[in-house]
Amino acid sequence: MRKLVIAASAAVVAAAGLTLPLAGSASAATTLKDDFNGDGYRDLAIGTPDANAVTVTFGSADGVGPSRSVTVTQMTVGVPGVTEPEDEFGENVTSGDVNNDGYADLIVGAPGERVTGNTTGSVSILWGGPKPFNRGAKVLNSPTTDTARFGEATSFVDIDGDDAANLAVISADGWWYYAESADPTRAIAPEVDFLPEGIHLEGMEAGHYLSKDGYTYVLYGENADGHPYVVYMKGGVGDIGYYSGVIAEDNPRATRNAAASGDVNGDGYTDLVTGNGADNSFTVHYGAQGSFGPATTYTQDSAGVPGASEEADFFGGSVSVGDLDNDGYADVAVGAPGETVGAVQATGSVTVLKGSAGALGAGRAYHQDTAGIPGAPEAGDHFGSSLRFKDINKNSRADLAIGANGEDIGTSADAGAVWVLRGAVPYVTTSYATSFNGANFGSTTAGAGLAFGSVLR
Fold first, then answer.
1. What CA–CA distance (Å, rounded) separates 158 from 168?
2. β-strand pairing of 363-366 with 383-390
3. Inter-residue contact 442 to 450 (CB < 8 Å)
4. Exposure of 255 by Cβ count < 10 A (0-12 exposed, 13-18 middle, 19+ buried)?
5. Residue 350, beta-bridge partner list
């Protein structure tokens, strides 16, 4: 087992895992839905549901690191509830300015939370500010008693076109939204039930897939037969749920748990990228006016994609979309956490492919044996088990955060770790690459089997 280098700044991290950043200006945060402290930089949230924790690393010109971070749990002062092993606090993370004070708020799902007199699941909204997450939180529970895993996924976009965002939440088999409010309280079900019987939802995306103005929601998971299933539902001012349809099911273009969104071909419509690790593939579903356009599926045997398809690669097990070189086309990152590198099995790799007006351009692969990436490949690391593109250092190029949920830290097996590679031309660069793990942020997220970095947002 190997130890990743622990940053010297970790010594100043408090026992509670809190290192508060300097205060920012509220006006700076109004256009960034993930700037929690108002300093004008996007922040990276790292969910570790096995530790029931979310770590926020605050963006800066120098990127992110432990010295500018806050770790929150249900034991954090002001956050309602208590931490229990099955809560899965941090299973998903979203953000947006819910209370309209100019600072992004952290929205955390805990689908395993046990609620007395109700079904499982909750969503916590932790308020941003000059010193974020120290002003308490609001907790929402399932609006019904006949569903489970409320908070399996969340979204914060404008559902009805009035320029005010709405919180949307899914459970295992349902979807709700809340009217725009600084204090969301009442969950609203769709007017038309568009989900089939026996569905088990895992995730949600939202984007301008079918209109350059209005939002459409994409939900994915498994149908009653246990096969992957992807469905869309258009937003609007009424009849929510009526305008819906199946995107993919029971085929390689469907997904259970890997999806991301961005304008890959630069036409102004959001494109949906779904990964199917069991099939070693991912698919680009191109957005278009009124309905999704043609879709293209890629494997490691496709032209321009590095490597070769092998049964245990799990290529497509994670996906992310972002413009890494500021050329106007969103690029696609695809994780293969089961990839063998050299003779090292399941160490994992990530492939980055270039967006363009036509098909995706040639790709480049990254792993722990790539020059400049800290660490070394070891069996079972699962490098690429989670991914997130976002511009952390405000240079208009999306940086790529990469999780490895099987990374061993010292004698702690499967403790997990995260790497950040900076956006550049033509691909992400390993220059200035950084890595960190739960031990860098205190004891809360450190330990065997906790899989730090399972969720990146």
1. 10
2. unpaired
3. no
4. buried
5. 335, 366
For residue 413, what are its two tokens? 């097996």
- Residue 11 phi/psi, 5-degree rounding, is -65, -25
Residue with tokens 């190997």: 2
List the Cα angle 208/300/249 in 5-degree steps: 50
**Cβ pair 168, 192 in contact under 8 A:** no
Token reading at 345: 């099995």
Question: 133, 134, 287: which is closest to 206 by C-alpha?
Answer: 287
Q: Which two tokens stand for residue 76?
A: 């954090």
Q: Coil, helix or strand for 245?
A: strand
For residues 180 and 317, give the distance between their C-alpha atoms in angstroms, rounded to a whole number. Answer: 34
Do residues 417 and 61 touch, judged by C-beta distance below 8 A? no
Residue 124 in 3-state DSSP? strand
Residue whose structure tokens are 């609006």 = 143
C-alpha span between 44 and 69 (Å, rounded): 9
Q: What's at 387, amino acid-wise?
A: L
Report how far residue 280's alpha carbon sits from residue 310's, in angstroms, rounded to the nearest whole number: 8
Strand partners, 259: 274
CB 148 within 8 A of CB 121: yes
Model pTM score: 0.93
Total residues belonging to the chain: 457
User: pLDDT (tens digit, 9 = 90+) per residue, 25-84?
Assistant: 444 444 699 999 999 999 999 999 999 999 999 999 999 999 999 999 999 988 888 888
In degrees and rounded to multiples of 5, residue 390 shows phi and psi of -170, 150
CA torsion, points 337, 338, 340, 344, in degrees to nearest 10?
A: 90
Who contacts 118 (Cβ-Cβ below 8 Å, separation ≥6)? Answer: 141, 142, 145
Query: Tokens 């929205």 label which residue?
Result: 107
Torsion, Cα of 34, 40, 46, 49 (10° steps): -40
- List all residues 6 or more positions away from 59 whose beta carbon is below 8 Å from its beta carbon: 35, 39, 41, 42, 43, 44, 392, 393, 394
118: amino acid identity, one letter: N
Written as six digits, the tokens of 13 are 């991290």
Cα(352)–Cα(365) distance, integer angstroms: 6
Q: Is the dihedral of CA 28, 34, 36, 37 positive or negative?
A: negative
Q: What is the pLDDT of residues 196-228, one digit of tens each?
A: 999 999 999 999 999 999 999 999 999 999 999
